[in-house]
Amino acid sequence: MSITDNLADIANEIETLSADLLRVNAMVDVLGKPAMDKANEIDKALQSAKDRFATALADQADREREERLSRFSDISVSIPVAGQNLMNTGFIIRYKAKTWDMVLKDSVPKQHECNGFSVLPDDVYDYLVSKKPEAIPGIIMELAPGKPHEAMSIYLQSKARGFVKSNWGALAA
Length: 173
What we know:
- The protein has helices at about 5-30, 35-70, 120-130, 140, 150-160, 170; strands at about 70-80, 90-100, 105-115.
- The chain is built from six helices and three strands, in the order ααβββαααα.
């Protein structure tokens, strides 16, 4: 059997090996040790194919994610007017995304703008926290220093709740 990273080929190999294993297991009582040895051999090959399939699937997901994120650049987050606290502070997110231009008949970087993180497209959010975490405002990064995913998660959960988790002790007292 050939080793390949093609998901369809690996899936077919898994099905074939599974069927072979069932046939050999059915013959163990009749053939004895040779059938048991063959069953063990097929079982190892089946496990190897499953591992390759999982790796190929993860690699494919990584490639697709990188391709999606490669459309974005020049992201910045600004605070037009600072609020009294984090909950009532507004943010404007500006980024460039490759967008189809009818005149040029090509995808070219165009400026986009969002008023707040709640309306930010998922891929742009992913680009911000994974590729450009330095663009996340310091007021948000203070929630989890050095951990952009966690800081943004805390901010978004706090925004949904209406208060920052660190204020819970004051509310309980």
